[in-house]
Amino acid sequence: MSSLSGIAASSGIAIAKVYKLAAPDLSFEKTTVEDTDTEIERLNQALAISKQELEKIKENAKRTLGDEHAEIFSAHLLVLSDPEMINPIQDKIKSEKVNAEVALDETATMFINMFKAMDNEYMRERAADIQDVTKRVMSHLLKVTFPDPALIDEEVVIVAEDLTPSDTAQLNKQFVKGFTTNIGGRTSHSAIMARSLEIPAVVGTKTITSDASKDQLIIVDGIEGKVILDPTDEEVAAYKQKQADFELQKKEWAKLKDEPTLSSDQVHVELAANIGTPEDVVGVLENGGEGVGLYRTEFLYMGKSELPTEDEQFDAYKSVLEQMGDKPVVVRTLDIGGDKELNYLDLPKEMNPFLGFRAIRLCLERTDIFRTQLRALLRASVYGNLKIMFPMIATLSEFREAKAILLDEKANLTKEGVKVSDSIEIGIMVEIPSTAVIAKQFAKEVDFFSIGTNDLIQYTMAADRMNERVSYLYQPYHPAILNLVNNVIEAAHAEGKWAGMCGEMAGDSIAIPILLGLGLDEFSMSATSILPARTQIRDLSKKELASYKDQLLAMGTAEEVEAFVKEKTNQ
User: Which of 94, 164, 158 is nearest to 132 (CA)?
Assistant: First the structure.
């Protein structure tokens, strides 16, 4: 038995065997082959196995994630069936008498470079498809395991260096009972997706990939942030009991599912959920969400080989709005960049992508992408209570330019005879300190604020939230953060606007009393955090917490704030 400590990223207990999700070693040597027919047969077998896998993955993706996520695998299957791709590989084996690995690699590299150099965007996107498919076929030629989260069909705990958003999008929680990673924090996208999928996760263990072995029994304690390898029978029994206790606690929370969120002195606040796909809405409603406070639309763009069409996006937005009925749905426009990349956009590599060409900055340059999304949103607006917000806004001119494009597309649709709602609120995410500082000026022009604390904290503290070595500086309760948050809330209320929060801080048990006292109107969090938050708020007096506001804002350290809150709320 051995144990590791990490960051509790998603609550719950998972007990299963290890499934290691690691990039395989695809290195090979060039050899001369005399029996080219046998070599071509070896290639054909690798192609056939790859096709079988992709068909299965496509069906799994269609069943669990919907047609749009499954389409990337249709593109991959087309590559495997394309004679213009396959015939040159076979010809190279015959004419040059080289092994299949060399023929595959050289042919694929030629096509990838050719497509990347083309002016046509659709053709450039084919390069990513060929790259992905080549890795799969190569792994079968080399007889090394190619990790496929979508093909998992038994109960496992995933162990990885990290999980990309596209990896997590493929996870089937029927079989994936939890995961644990070397890197990451509570606000990394793998952690956020784990909470969305409602599976236990511990991240930032530093060494789990080297410590764990394939099929080894593992316990992931997403409540305490512990991972245990080769547990004893007594430990397994104890954690099964802890698992059962947690399920009982969830049943107690569920009793408040249809209740309004009221403080002990009967002040109502809205508890909403953060989602990434239309399928996540089920979890929002099952957990008593009063709205969607953040729909991360970038997941429509990820795990694909090309940009989603206007109709594909319209269908997704319409689905969410219809499922939510008259409850508000705040949709964030495309936020790509930082740790979220799109291979098919072929964006330049940057030294500091979190501070670079991302989110609204990308959309204001690539207005073709932006306008397509806005048209889809506007068309869907008549099916529910839509609010649109722009991410990464640093200046008023950015907001004005984005809003002007939105209103231009609304006018275009109206001319085309397409119905658009006249009650769409337009707001911004506040995640850049400059915006929080001049919130008064923004409040005169926006309809609402949603504070994105994940980025606001890292930018204010100059600490990369993905870097464990400076994770101690990720301090949600730091007085600098609280003063910025208070500034935004006060600015909104002075103009009769509302202020929400869609960062992970909104569901934090220490932060909730602080935010309630500061006057936050809407708390948006992972769906699984809603009922625990509602339970907590019912025991808190907003009037009493508001009386501590000046004391909290005048404190010097996050530790002082935390100790004060724990004392006053008996935590």
Answer: 164
**Residue 162 pLDDT level (bands cut at 50, 70, 90):** confident
Strand partners, 178: 157
| pLDDT confidence tier of residue 250, bands split at 50, 70 and 90 | confident
| Backbone φ, ψ for residue 49 (5° rounding) | -65, -40
Domains, the chain, with CATH or none: 2-22+149-251 (3.50.30.10), 36-142 (1.10.274.10), 261-569 (3.20.20.60)
Task: Note the helical H segments in 495-557.
Answer: 511-518, 530-537, 542-546, 549-553
Distant-in-sequence, close-in-space partners of 21: CB < 8 Å, separation ≥ 6: 147, 149, 158, 159, 160, 163, 167
The pLDDT of residue 299 is 83
Residue 195 belongs to what H/E stretch? helix 189-197
Pick from 142-156, 158-172, 201-215, 329-343: least confident: 158-172
Least Cα distance to 429 among 313, 558, 295 occurs for 295
Going from the C-alpha of 313 to that of each of 330, 339, 375, 424, the distances in angstroms are 15, 22, 9, 18
Quote the longest CA-to-CA distance of the chain: 85
**Which amino acid belongs to residue 233?**
D
Q: Give the whole-angstrom CA distance, residue 240 versus residue 226.
A: 15
Report which of 392, 410, 394 is spatially closest to residue 336, judged by C-alpha positions.
392
Q: Are 456 and 429 in contact (CB under 8 A)?
A: no
pTM of the model: 0.71
Rounded (10°) angle between helices 558-569 and 511-518: 90
pLDDT confidence tier of residue 115, bands split at 50, 70 and 90? confident
Active site residue 502: yes
Of 10, 350, 23, 449, whose CA–CA distance to 188 is shortest? 10
Record the tokens describing residue 431, joined without a space.
């995640």
pLDDT class of 69 with cuts at 50, 70, 90: low
* Token pair recorded at residue 571: 């935590």
Better-scored residue on pLDDT, 503 or 502: 502
Q: Distance between CA atoms of 204 and 226, rounded to whole angstroms?
A: 11
**Percentage of the chain lying above the pLDDT 90 cut:** 66
What are the backbone dihedrals phi and psi of residue 33, each rounded to the nearest 5 degrees, phi first?
-120, 140
Find the angle CA(473)-CA(562)-CA(221) to the nearest 5 degrees: 75
Residue 121 has pLDDT above 60, yes or no: no
Please tell me what DSSP assigns to residue 91.
Answer: H
Question: Rounded distance, CA 249 to CA 242, Å?
Answer: 10
Inter-CA distances, 212 with 217, 220, 522, Å = 9, 12, 41
Q: What is the C-alpha to C-alpha distance for residues 346 and 182, in angstroms, rounded to an integer?
A: 28
Catalytic hit among 69, 363, 478, 502: 502
Q: Which of 69, 76, 140, 189 does the annotation list as catalytic?
A: 189
